[in-house]
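Quick log. Single chain, no ligands specified.
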Amino acid sequence: MRGGFLHNQVLAARVEHAFRASGAEVCREYRIVTSALEGYVDLMVTCGGRRIACEIELTAERIYWDVAKAQAMHAVLLLIVVPNEQLARTVRQKLTDRQTTRRPLKLSVFCLTVGAVLEALRNKSLLKSVLNVDTTLIHPTITSATTSSERSRPCKFNGGT
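-> predicted structure:
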């Protein structure tokens, strides 16, 4: 991954391991190439035949780019993992502000701290909610938490469905 130690080892590796332990398939550095954009999603998770885009963020700067990549790969959920609740609130506010000025998203967005993600994966609540996500969602769900590595082969997505 392109990030530093905090991004790769403290956050991404722990989340990747937790998803794998929950039985999901995980692809690190998932490449997306479409006519509109080219980029990488930190972790592409497949659970019950549904795609989850998982982005590890240390700032709120790239949030809209994360949304565009998740939509391009036809994810039903964008999971933004951050190191602390202050940043999670900032990201959620930025996404909420976007909803008043732009077309609604066609995916759910969860912004959670790494601790909340690990807890939700341990008790399987995150995966259960993903399996029940309606893929025809028009309006997003921007969710907050109420709770306090294996090597991967590169994967690629080339447009289409």
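The beta strands are 25-33, 38-47, 50-56, 77-82, 108-113, 142-143, 155-158.
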